[in-house]
Amino acid sequence: PKQQGSITSFFGAP
Amino acid sequence: MLEARLDQAEILKKVVDAIKDLVQDCNFDCNDSGIALQAMDNSHVALVSMNLQADSFAPYRCDRNIALGVNLTSLTKVLRAAQNTDILTLRALDAPDSLNLVFESQDKDRISEYDLKLMDIDQEHLGIPETEYAATIKMPSVEFRRICTDLMALSESVTIEASKDGIKFTCSGDIGNGSVTLRQHTNVENEKENIEIELSEPVALTFSLKYLVNFCKAAGLSNTVTICLSNEVPLLVSYALTSKAGSNLRFYLAPKIGD
């Protein structure tokens, strides 16, 4: 099954 | 100092109501361009981003950057004392311990004043990259809410596919499966009912319905919602807060990945 991704793996430090 | 007057308390009441189940404590970052908020939920799956531009307020004054660290449950208790149509004024000093909120009835025959204690919140800010989304859907916000709640009755996740045939929401669960397909639709008499789809390439992504249903608590803020998708990036669900461009409440949701 698919795993829930984390927002921090897409959006990093500004 | 900060002084910001909103003509309708309803906007802030509805924003806080829409996000308080995702985020408990957050900073309202105030500067001369307006008031912004960015916060992740505890599990770091969703990100909330609110922008209320200075032109949403009249008057608006903020001399230097101020972070208002707010517990949203506490703010909800105070905002409950404001009627939707009340004029709301937010005031804070440059290094504030508390936020002053004044609610005035439109006839100015009632003035309520509250001070909310603030807290120090050390919140990491994420950079949200500018994205050219492969698919952008603008649709009635209640329709999107209905789709999400209907599908959540069957499954915990939904696959959203955008193709030249339309936007297809599919789910499957223990009792069976379901799908809803949306096609471009123009209602000449009532443009709030329009479904607009812009597609540059096909997209298919899977998301947790629990979060999407949570985002839909913002449906009362705007008749329309904009949903943006690109493969392998978080989904964006955006509600306009006022008729002024740039004031919005946005939710980002990380997709489910792998197989």
Structural class of chain A, by secondary structure, is: mainly beta
The share of residues in helices of chain B is 10-25%
Report the structural category of chain B. Answer: mainly beta
Strands side by side in the biggest sheet of chain B: 6-2-3-4-18-17-16-10-14
Please outline what is shown here.
The complex is a heterodimer of chains A (14) and B (259). Chain A is an all-beta fold and 14 residues long.
Structure commentary:
The complex is a heterodimer of chains A (14) and B (259). The N and C termini of chain A lie far apart (32 Å). With 14 residues, chain A is mostly beta strands. The mean pLDDT of chain A is 89. Chain A has one strand spanning 3-4. Chain A contains no helices and 1 strand. Chain B has a 9-stranded antiparallel sheet with strand order 6-2-3-4-18-17-16-10-14. Chain B has 4 helices and 19 strands. Helix content of chain B is 14%, strand content 44%. The longest helix of chain B is centred in the middle third of the chain and has 12 residues, at 141-152. Chain B has helices at 10-19, 72-79, 141-152, 209-215; strands at 2-6, 25-31, 34-40, 46-53, 60-62, 66-71, 87-92, 98-104, 111-117, 135-140, 157-163, 166-173, 176-182, 196-199, 203-208, 224-229, 235-240, 248-253, 256-257. The mean pLDDT of chain B is 96. In chain B, α3 runs antiparallel to α4. Chain B is mainly beta. In chain B, a hairpin with a 2-residue loop joins β11 (157-163) and β12. Chains A and B meet through β1 of A and β19 of B. β1 of chain A pairs antiparallel with β19 of chain B.
